[in-house]
Design goal:
248 residues; 7 helices
Length: 248
């Protein structure tokens, strides 16, 4: 007998880094499908604009200022959602930074910033929802990695290392539980503000060429929706989503 896909109607879904790019697109996609979305990011003004647009279209979106490098903030983010709606069905750990540079440039502050946001931020998201999901007996953790988790490029060594860490953490979590689904989404080149964090001019120039072939953030949003909508006994463990014309 064919198992039916899940509906997103009324699912409570948390999204980090939701003020722009992939996170914003995921919030719009899931809210349009009937989910109760709880969106977090540092830029409250952008979140409030998103909230107004989603609600004008009939969707439901709650927003909260969120810095994923703070475990306390992420924990509060999850607990407030649970208190408001009674459960947390999924979290999309999307917040990330990409200030690329050659290792010889010794941009140590930027390395540490990537580690804090791209790795610790994901761990904080997992830590915030695991107790809730274990008590519920179900849940879904979706971690946004990158094509950089699968292929290292010059100037991207630290960034790729953080995204490989996201992949490793995801697969470790998947193996540790038989009740919580875990998905890693690895986007290829996507139109976003991510490259704007590159301060090194050589890396910025190279990235302009690298990003000449890109897809829109809603492609990643559709992939996330697909993974969440699968029947409860189906875990879409990993997806790479990239431009058809991409050589990488």
């Amino acid at each position: 007998m064919t198992k039916h896909s899940q509906t997103l109607r009324d699912k409570v879904i948390l999204i980090t880094g939701a003020s722009s790019g992939i996170g914003e697109a995921i919030a719009r996609e899931l809210a349009a499908a009937g989910a109760q979305v709880v969106a977090g990011a540092r830029r409250l003004d952008r979140l409030q604009k998103l909230q107004a647009e989603v609600e004008a279209g009939g969707g439901r979106l709650q927003v909260q200022t969120l810095d994923v490098t703070s475990h306390a903030q992420v924990d509060t983010f999850a607990r407030l959602a649970q208190q408001a709606y009674g459960r947390v069905d999924a979290i999309i750990n999307n917040a990330g930074l990409m200030p690329l540079s050659p290792l010889a440039a010794l941009k140590i502050d930027e390395w540490n910033q990537m580690i804090d946001v791209n790795i610790r931020g994901v761990l904080h998201g997992i830590a915030a929802v695991l107790p809730i999901m274990n008590t519920q007996g179900h849940g879904h953790v979706v971690n946004v990695a990158s094509i950089g988790a699968h292929r290292v490029s010059p100037t991207a060594a630290v960034y790729c290392a953080t995204k490989y860490a996201v992949w490793a953490i995801s697969d470790g979590l998947r193996q540790e539980t038989d009740r919580i689904r875990v998905t890693t989404i690895s986007p290829g080149v996507v139109s976003s503000e991510l490259a704007d964090t590159i301060s090194d001019e050589s890396a910025r120039s190279a990235m302009r060429d690298f990003r000449s072939v890109a897809i829109e953030p809603d492609a990643i949003a559709r992939a996330v929706r697909f993974a969440i909508e699968q029947p409860a006994d189906v875990d879409v463990s990993e997806m790479i989503v990239r431009p058809t014309a991409s050589p990488h």
